Amino acid sequence: MSVVLLALMSAISPTVPAVHPGSAGSAGSASAMFASAGRWHAWSATTHLPASVRGTSPSGARVTYLLAGPARETSCRRAFRPAALRMLRGCVTALLATYTDVTQTYVVTAGVTVLARPDAARATAGIPPGATVEVRVRRLRALVRPLAVPDGPAERFGARQCLTGFAVASGDGRVVATAAGYADGRPYRRGTQVAPRLADGARLIVRALHRDLPR
Fold this sequence. Notes:
- The protein is α+β, with helices and mostly antiparallel strands.
- The protein has one domain.
- 22% of the residues lie in helices and 29% in strands.
- The protein is built from six helices and nine strands.
- Strands 1, 2, 3, 4, 5, 6, 7, 8 and 9 form a nine-stranded antiparallel beta sheet that branches.
- A hairpin with a 4-residue loop joins strand 8 and strand 9.
- The radius of gyration is 16 Å and the shape is globular.
- 46% of the residues are buried.
- Keywords: Signal.
């Protein structure tokens, strides 16, 4: 892993990033991702951000997160915070969507990038091809900006309500990030403890979306 990547990750996260050689999948080549960028508008939003994300909690319980509203296409500058943009050279557009758990207790905004230049994968924080880096980020350094959705459980989700998030980036240029908080709109306060289920949801969604991105 490059010195550039280590410096960036230490700036956005108090934890050491986990590097998983090969977990990005050999089929996820950089050239395939750049071709994906050209086909962006030919795909439906559900190609990148499905209506539901299912998984298993650390305790073994089955969990489901549902879209709180339609995905929104926006510029990378509007979707991601400055720390993320330093990783995303070559990012030309992004999709944002917010998910909620079935009890409508937690809300999680996910941001997915589309890269367009052949050098973008090499510039994505210097991550080697075939490797994936995952980090948990602190509230003030969540990489993706929260997306509120009117008339639903995510209508009060904004920057002040963001408590935690995760990011997954791979050497083929695919990057997904999440920002998570509570549906009741409670703001972050100094010393706020993040519920394990909230952090688990942010991690589950970012891993699932990154894993299933078209190649």
